[in-house]
Amino acid sequence: MRAQRLADLLFLGSTYRGSQLDNSAGSRFWARTRTYKGAGTTASKNQDTYLLLSCSSPPRTMTFAILASFVSALAALQVANGALTRRVTCADGSVTSNAACCALFPVIQDLQANLFDNGGCGEDVHESLRLTFHDAIGISPAIAARGQFGGGGADGSIALFEDIETNFHANLGVDEIIDEQRPLLQRSNISAADFIQLAGAIGVANCPGAPRLAVFVGRQDATQPAPDLTVPEPFDTVDSILQRFEDAGGFTPAEVVALLASHTIAAADHVDPSIPGTPFDSTPELFDTQFFIETQLRGTLFPGTPGNQGEVESPVPGEIRLQSDSELARDSRTACEWQSFVNNQAKLQSAFAAAFRKMTILGHDESELVDCSDVVQQPPPPASAAHFPAGLSNADIEQACASTPFPTLPTDPGPVTSVAPVPPS
Question: What Pfam families does UniProt report for this protein, alphabetically (predicted)?
């Protein structure tokens, strides 16, 4: 891959003494260009080249000639910077930043037409996003330190070793989306590792309010399955969940909360098998902040049968609440970060995008991958403002953040909200 040039402009020379300029040495303008090696090349030291423009007159009496020289230097640097934004036109007319990304456009078209209902944000999008996590989180340096295979992270093992990994209790149900994706994967001509993460990012971008997620290619496929017990369960303690994320990739408690924004478009099929497709908030078709609002409402009911492992009472008919979500929303280490997403769509988007980027390359060196994030379409804007479901209000909030009051939100008008199941694909 060609080297990229990044141009920096520095001003050195005159210094202030009190309120006076010291121009005894004259004014000097340094133009510096720095060469970096791009992804896919061997590492090398940065190479700096300096261009010196000098003048004997102080800046306050800068002559037109010196200003012209300065502008010329800036123009030269902008030309150098142009290499950073050079675009590639693919055979199908699509434009991207790297020729290696051209192979993704036919895959994206296939995903949208044959898996995501031509741009929908439905069950297959939810499940594809879930699969990105269940594949990537299968890595444990702690296990590797004991001399055992600790997993390869985002390496496609969950699809390549489906017969093994889908029998892990935490992966219950992911076999369905693996089987739906398999024909598309087989005709994609990209690795399973790349395909799983691409499908999740493209699907999420169909959802109103979602961020534009990172896409990388160049991952090597797994040669053995991930170890069991690397995927957190809804009945795990907060201590256990935070420790698992820290082990997998050094995720902070705030990043764990950010990743759980995925539940804003999620539904549960197997926590209570009597009510498949039960969403975690009242707007499962939108990537919004409702999940972070509604998990802090006082639970009063079970949407189906009570007594299921990993489930606690929810506040809205037709909505399911995981024990792990409830406890993370109320734990002192995570409660304020959880609440901070309420009615803050911009923070939700940026935090989830950053945490997803970190997750999607677990087990890989980012410098060895190609960034193809520009192939992801721009998601639709948010479709609604933060609110309480009809019949509920601030009085129903179980305040957990000790430092900041819960935001005041409007309540939907009309009869008490009841949430319909997410239709199957």
Answer: peroxidase, Peroxidase_ext
In a domain, 54, yes or no: no
Residue written as tokens 């434009």? 95
Backbone angles phi, psi at 368, to 5 degrees: -95, 0
Average pLDDT over residues 306-329: 98
Beta bridge partners of 311: 322
Residue 358 confidence (pLDDT): 99
d(C-alpha 119, C-alpha 136), whole Å: 25
Confidence check: pLDDT of 9 > 80: no
Classify residue 107: in a domain, yes or no.
yes
> pLDDT-based confidence at 342, cuts 50/70/90?
very high
- In the numeric block, the tokens 């720095």 are attached to 34
Q: Which candidate in 134, 169, 364, 387 is catalytic?
A: 134
364 assigned to active site: no
Does residue 182 lie in a domain region?
yes
What CATH number is given to the structural domain containing 175?
1.10.520.10
Q: Characterise 331 by phi-psi region: left (phi > 0), alpha (psi -120 to 50), beta (else).
A: beta
Mean pLDDT taken over the chain: 86
Partners of 12 in the β-ladder: 28
Between the two ends of the chain, the Cα-to-Cα distance in Å is: 41
Give me the domain span that covers residue 214. Answer: 95-396
Give me the DSSP letters along 170-226: GGTTHHHHHHHHHHHHHTT-S-HHHHHHHHHHHHHTTSTTPPPPP-EE-PPPPSSPP
Q: From the annotation, which residues make up the binding site for Ca(2+)? A: 135, 153, 155, 157, 264, 281, 283, 288
- Rounded CA-CA distance 278/81 in Å is 50
Pick from 68-82, 136-150, 363-377: least confident: 68-82
Mean of pLDDT values over 232-250: 99
SS3 call for 86: coil
Annotated binding residues for heme b, written as ranges, equal 263
E strand intervals along 27-73: 27-36, 47-55
The answer to whether position 18 is within a domain reads: no
Our count of domains for the chain comes to 1
